[in-house]
Amino acid sequence: MADHLKSGSTSGPNTRLVSAGRRPADQFGFVNTPVYHGSTVLYSSADDLYANRNRYSYGRRHSPTIDALCDALTELEGAAGTVLAPSGLAAVTTAILAAVSAGDHMLVADSVYHPMRHFCDGVLKRFGVEVSYYDPLIGAGIAELMQPNTKAVFTESPGSQTFEVQDIPAIAGAAHARGALVLMDNTWATPLLFDALGHGVDLSIQAGTKYVSGHADVLIGSVSANAAAWPRLRDTHGDLGLTVGPDDIYLATRGLRTMGLRLERHHASGLAIARWLLERPEVRRVMHPGLEEDPGHAIWKRDFRGACGLFGIELEPVENARVRRFLDALALFGMGYSWGGYESLIVPFDISKSRSLPSVFEGPTLRIHIGLEDVADLTADLDRALAELRT
């Protein structure tokens, strides 16, 4: 936390983004915390060594560079503490390992990020953790799926690729009544647009690779915990030996400072293009909770403060060759498996092999990330490419 920003501050989100985690007085007045490269930390005396009186003991666990980002995220999340991981997936798996043990049962939303599902079906199964997948729209009905050994409920809202909005408070209430922890992948909204811990989540996960960094040049993840879940998360993270390179942490911290302004642009541009696509005859469905027509709009409007630039579309049924021509015709949309950066992206997806629930799609499906380019240029690019579907 910055020297001038006191704990419990009611400052606005952009003020906290700029101030949280900064201690210029500790850095000779420099605005940004420097990059500390180091593993070994020296003690000034044998007495300090035996009593472990140093502020830092080893570079893997803490450094001023690490603390700058962790403190900032802890402030933004309203958490008891935050740990960093070398990727968003590593953050997900760390949070899960902090929540379950052999013999436990975990409920997982059917719409989660596919690599996380692969971890559940592989590693967790080998370690004796049972996983059941549930309809992300189940809400308080999840109470009927709870077993005596259910220790965690994993949520992701909106859902990966298909953007279902979960009723997190209802799910959290049902889970906590049975003594289970609630985990949430909150990468889509970030703590600026959805207060995960405030809505009942115990472990809030972000792929900082996306909006925290914002520039498509960093792989990093974070997990923030409330007071009840923090000790086990802290210990699990330490036992796993996880660490992130200081240069990546520095870049993520630098990106964090402008995340609020970037999200405002992603929100406005994403909604504008989603509405434009909604009127296109080539588009069968637009999956964006910010649209009034979206099935999840009411819960999104109740719980969220805004939207990011990521959403999905279903095209009218058309052969795959035309979809490929459409993708190749785009000039401003790159094809790549990430999002959250300044650039617009588009990729096809197929949930038929990664869900327990049957697919409801009849046409090709695409995931779109709207970057920081001008909306008029992006719609013109899409308009030219959509002509390939009619050729």
TrEMBL record:
Gene Ontology MF annotations: cysteine-S-conjugate beta-lyase activity
Family: Belongs to the trans-sulfuration enzymes family.
Protein known as: Cystathionine beta-lyase
Source species, domain of life: Bacteria
Family matches, as Gene3D superfamilies: Aspartate Aminotransferase, domain 1 (3.90.1150.10), Type I PLP-dependent aspartate aminotransferase-like (Major domain) (3.40.640.10)
Region described as Disordered: spans on this chain: 1-20
Keyword Lyase: yes
Keywords: Lyase, Pyridoxal phosphate
Biased composition, class Polar residues, residue ranges: 7-17
Record carries keyword Plastid: no
Catalytic activity: L,L-cystathionine + H2O = L-homocysteine + pyruvate + NH4(+)
Co-factor(s): pyridoxal 5'-phosphate
Database matches in InterPro entries: Cys/Met-Metab_PyrdxlP-dep_enz, Cys_b_lyase_bac, PyrdxlP-dep_Trfase, PyrdxlP-dep_Trfase_major, PyrdxlP-dep_Trfase_small
EC nos: 4.4.1.13
NCBIfam families: cysta_beta_ly_B (TIGR01324)
